[in-house]
């Protein structure tokens, strides 16, 4: 029931598998497996969990030829497109290209000379595979490190542009670029500079952001700044945590900026002595019960009448706390029904699921999709 004023940066369109990237396509959310790639069963299981959380893409590290052989089996079982993460040995990129990888991520700092890049590009072109040039502040080329002394925005962008120029000379345009750093300001300024110089899609990330809490905060600040400026076509939240959490945080960032919504956006007060019911317990219970819902929806849960009615007016489902029974709203309209404060979770779940079903039926009748991005 809200809209965002963000004007996205124009960019070229590429496809990673069947997922469109750039040129106004929904910003794709990806994660990365942290299993041993040679453990095919464990890796496939984790990819399935990541896909179930809503990810559009999954990146898989392929550090050895043995891992490349395992990747062949993993690709056959993956429900979503796979990006192969390649470092040091360009021959691994050639092998996974043969096995049907959906995108190749190469690191300019360690993939080798132009001849090796040409071999990778030729393999990608022959099979219609896009490439991600993945620059990282922690692994810049030796000569760039010596030139700048330390990672700087100019250093990261120079590294990226060297390889953009190589791909241009090879007449290869199906690529996206990232310039990641663990420092928020370094990453943000690098992306800003790069966005002015190329028309390819940009993959966003704050690399090695940290644990679940600190990394989520750092990523939200850095990526939020860029996304609010219209910069970014795909993203990954890099956390020392379960990859499923990366997907959840990624969608939460997009949801908070009204860029792409998936599932319920809860508006809930932090609670105080004015609350007429246990707001925190109610919200926690609803979040767990309603994780399966993918239809975008705003649900406001406010514990008193100070802000409750106002938030409910701009929500699909709203609750304004009152003594014994709380005010209930649907699509901004106050309902005659009041909800018993002792049975809020069950009743709210019923109403929310009914509203989801109503939206889906309306969309089907009008032959329009209930958009998730």
UniProtKB/TrEMBL annotation:
Keyword Nucleus assigned: no
Listed EC numbers: 1.17.7.3
Pfam family, one: GcpE
GO molecular-function term, one example from the UniProt record: 4-hydroxy-3-methylbut-2-enyl-diphosphate synthase activity (flavodoxin)
Functional pathway: Isoprenoid biosynthesis; isopentenyl diphosphate biosynthesis via DXP pathway; isopentenyl diphosphate from 1-deoxy-D-xylulose 5-phosphate: step 5/6
Free-text function comment from the UniProt entry: Converts 2C-methyl-D-erythritol 2,4-cyclodiphosphate (ME-2,4cPP) into 1-hydroxy-2-methyl-2-(E)-butenyl 4-diphosphate.
NCBIfam families: ispG_gcpE (TIGR00612), PRK00366.1 (NF001540)
PANTHER family linked to this entry: 4-HYDROXY-3-METHYLBUT-2-EN-1-YL DIPHOSPHATE SYNTHASE (PTHR30454), 4-HYDROXY-3-METHYLBUT-2-EN-1-YL DIPHOSPHATE SYNTHASE (FERREDOXIN), CHLOROPLASTIC (PTHR30454:SF0)
Record protein name field: 4-hydroxy-3-methylbut-2-en-1-yl diphosphate synthase (flavodoxin)
Organism: Pseudidiomarina maritima
The gene coding this protein: ispG
């Amino acid at each position: 029931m809200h809209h965002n004023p963000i004007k996205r940066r124009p960019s070229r369109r590429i496809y990673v598998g069947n997922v469109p990237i750039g040129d106004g396509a929904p910003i794709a959310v990806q994660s990365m497996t942290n299993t041993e790639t040679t453990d095919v069963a464990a890796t496939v299981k984790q990819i399935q969990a990541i896909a179930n959380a809503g990810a559009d893409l999954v990146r898989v590290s392929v550090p050895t030829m043995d891992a490349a052989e395992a990747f062949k089996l993993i690709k056959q079982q993956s429900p979503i497109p796979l990006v192969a993460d390649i470092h040091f040995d360009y021959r691994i990129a050639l092998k996974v290209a043969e096995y049907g990888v959906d995108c190749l991520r190469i690191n300019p700092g360690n993939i080798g000379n132009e001849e090796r890049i040409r071999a990778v590009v030729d393999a990608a072109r022959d099979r219609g595979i896009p490439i991600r040039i993945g620059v990282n502040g922690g692994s810049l080329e030796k000569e760039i490190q010596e030139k700048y002394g330390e990672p700087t925005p100019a250093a990261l962008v120079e590294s990226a542009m060297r390889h953009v120029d190589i791909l241009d000379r090879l007449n290869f345009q199906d690529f996206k670029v990232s310039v990641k750093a663990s420092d928020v300001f370094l990453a943000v300024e690098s992306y800003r500079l790069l966005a002015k110089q190329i028309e390819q899609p940009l993959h966003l990330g704050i690399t090695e952001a940290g644990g679940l809490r600190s990394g989520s905060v750092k990523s939200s600040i850095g990526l939020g700044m860029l996304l609010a400026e219209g910069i970014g076509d795909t993203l990954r939240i890099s956390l020392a945590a379960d990859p499923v959490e990366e997907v959840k945080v990624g969608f939460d960032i997009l949801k908070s900026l009204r860029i792409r919504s998936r599932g319920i956006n809860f508006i809930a007060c932090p609670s105080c002595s004015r609350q007429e019911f246990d707001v925190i317990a109610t919200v926690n219970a609803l979040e767990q019960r309603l994780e399966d819902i993918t239809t975008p929806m705003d649900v406001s849960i406010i514990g008193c009448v100070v802000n409750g009615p106002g938030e409910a007016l701009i929500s699909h489902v709203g609750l304004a706390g009152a003594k014994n029974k709380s005010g209930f709203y649907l699509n901004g309209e106050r309902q005659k029904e009041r909800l018993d404060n002792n049975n809020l979770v069950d009743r709210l779940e019923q109403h929310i699921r009914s509203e989801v079903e109503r939206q889906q039926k309306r969309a089907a009748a009008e032959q329009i999709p209930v958009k998730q991005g």
